[in-house]
C-alpha cells in the first residue's frame, strides 16, 4: 500500500526558532491520526507544511506521492484550520457552491448542509454567524470536495455540545468510508473514540507514536489503595511502583504498570484490606505527558 503521507527527516524553523526537528512519519490510507501536543508544540505548523502553505527547510515530504501543494493533493485534501473563514459579502450556500466547483467529485451543497444541520443558516452572510456556527461551516467547507485526506485543526473549539456530538458522528462516518484524517486536539478523551494512532508532538519532535492501548500501557498511572499493618518499604521496590504514600491508615501506591504491580502484591494480599484500584483518566495522562516532556 502506498502511504498517503510520507515525511523523512523534516525540519522547519521560523527564522532562528526551530519548531519542527527531524520528523519522520508514515500515514497510510484510512488511518485516523490524533495529533496532540500542548500550545506551541508545532501542530499547526506541521499541518501548514502538509498543505503546502509553508515550505520545509530540510528533509522530504510527500502527499499522494507528490510534493505538498501538488495537483493530486489539491484535489484530495480538505482542511479545517483555526480562524480561516473571514470572508465578507457571501452566504453559506454561496461559499459551498463556489467551493464545490473546484473539485471533480464534489458533494452536493444542499445535501451536505442538510446532513450537517446547516440548512437554516444557508442564506446567512458568513459575517453574521457565531463562532460555533462558523466552525460548523468550516467543517462543511472541508468536506465539500469529498476529499480522501482531511486535516482538522482543533475542530471542536467553539462548538456547543450538540455540534460536537454531530461532528464526531460525522467523523465516524468518514472513518467508515475509509478516509484518512489528521485531527489535532488538546483533549485526549475526545479523540480516543476515533483515532487509530496517536502522535505526541513535544518540543518539535514526536515523543510518542502508537495506539491508545500502547499509550495507556506506557503512561497511564494506576493508583492502588489499601489498609495494612505492613511497613511502607515493603511496597517501594515492587514492579512498576513509582511512589508509596500513606494518609492516615490508607496506603497509596502509584504504578506505571498496574498489572505487574498487582501480581507483585499477591503474596501480601492476606495482609491488605479494602483494596481499590483506579486508573488515571486520559485527560490526566495528557497533563503528565506534557509535564514530563517539559522537565
Ligand atoms: N508565523 C510565525 N512566525 C514566528 N513564529 C511562529 C509563527 N507561527 C507559529 N510560530 C511559533 O511556532 C511554534 C509552533 O506554533 P504552532 O502554531 O505550530 O503550535 P501549535 O502546536 O499548533 O499550538 P496551539 O496548540 O496553540 O495551536 C510556537 O512557538 C509559535 O509561537
Automatic annotation (TrEMBL):
Residues 5-228 form the ABC transporter domain. InterPro entries: AAA+_ATPase, ABC_transporter-like_ATP-bd, ABC_transporter-like_CS, ABC_transporter_ATP-binding, P-loop_NTPase. It holds the Pfam family ABC_tran. One of its GO terms (molecular function) is ATP binding. Keywords: ATP-binding, Nucleotide-binding, Transport. PANTHER family: ABC TRANSPORTER ATP-BINDING PROTEIN. This is ABC transporter ATP-binding protein. It comes from Lactiplantibacillus brownii.
Amino acid at each position: 500500500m502506498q502511504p498517503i503521507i510520507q515525511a523523512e527527516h523534516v525540519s522547519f524553523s521560523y527564522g532562528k526558532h526551530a519548531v519542527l526537528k527531524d520528523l519522520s512519519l508514515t500515514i497510510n490510507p484510512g488511518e485516523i491520526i490524533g495529533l496532540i501536543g500542548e500550545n506551541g508544540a508545532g501542530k499547526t505548523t506541521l499541518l501548514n507544511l502538509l498543505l503546502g502553505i509553508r515550505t520545509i527547510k530540510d528533509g522530504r515530504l510527500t502527499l499522494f506521492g507528490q510534493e505538498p501543494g501538488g495537483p493530486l493533493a489539491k484535489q484530495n485534501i480538505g482542511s479545517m484550520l483555526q480562524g480561516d473563514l473571514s470572508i465578507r459579502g457571501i452566504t453559506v450556500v454561496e461559499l459551498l457552491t463556489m467551493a464545490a466547483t473546484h473539485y471533480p467529485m464534489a458533494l452536493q451543497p444542499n445535501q451536505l448542509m442538510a446532513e450537517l444541520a446547516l440548512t437554516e443558516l444557508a442564506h446567512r452572510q458568513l459575517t453574521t454567524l457565531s463562532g460555533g456556527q462558523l466552525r460548523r461551516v468550516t467543517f462543511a467547507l472541508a468536506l465539500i470536495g469529498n476529499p480522501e485526506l482531511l486535516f482538522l485543526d482543533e475542530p471542536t473549539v467553539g462548538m456547543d455540545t450538540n455540534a460536537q456530538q454531530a461532528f464526531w458522528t460525522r467523523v465516524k462516518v468518514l472513518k467508515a468510508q475509509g478516509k484518512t484524517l489528521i485531527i489535532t486536539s488538546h483533549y485526549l478523551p475526545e479523540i480516543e473514540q476515533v483515532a487509530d494512532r496517536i502522535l505526541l508532538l513535544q518540543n518539535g519532535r514526536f515523543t510518542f507514536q502508537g495506539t491508545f492501548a500502547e499509550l495507556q500501557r506506557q503512561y497511564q498511572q494506576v493508583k492502588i489503595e489499601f489498609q495494612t499493618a505492613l511497613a511502607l518499604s515493603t511496597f517501594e521496590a515492587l514492579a512498576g511502583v513509582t511512589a508509596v504514600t500513606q494518609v492516615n491508615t490508607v496506603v497509596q501506591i502509584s504504578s506505571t504498570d498496574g498489572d505487574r504491580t498487582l501480581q507483585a502484591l499477591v503474596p501480601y494480599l492476606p495482609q491488605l484490606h479494602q483494596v481499590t484500584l483506579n486508573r488515571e483518566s486520559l485527560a490526566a495522562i495528557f497533563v503528565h505527558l506534557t509535564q514530563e516532556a517539559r522537565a
